[in-house]
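Problem: given the chain below (149 residues), write out its structure.
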Amino acid sequence: MLGQFRAATDRLLRAPDPAALADFMMASDLDSGHPEIKWVRAWALRALIPLGGPRVRPVLLAASSESFWRLRMLAVRALALDPQATARLIALTRDPQWRVRDAACRSLGQGGVLTEAVVNALSTAPNDPDDRVAASAEAAHDRLRREMS
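Solution.
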């Protein structure tokens, strides 16, 4: 796995394009024994998000399941306007990391998708043990109600 990481890093440094960044994200492995890789991957994901393109969505969906909370949070924020990612965002309202739950609530409020599942997720989030998540869930729920009325 470290060989894949090195090869992808070399390609990324030679030609920082969306394909190289996507390859880098998919080749890296957080469990490789190199803790600094998780931060390099977070910065690579931050660079990839604004570039867009067909290879970005699968990388974002994969990053939303990563063990490193920062990658999940970045992916959730980027998936906010993707209606096909609503189910993943709903699931992440129950993430162990409060920052990811907060980002998921905010993203659901930005997505403009008002389904029963979204309403249920945002209705239960105000009971979150973290006040910041509860406030984001309420604000997202209010925003969606205003937009839909």
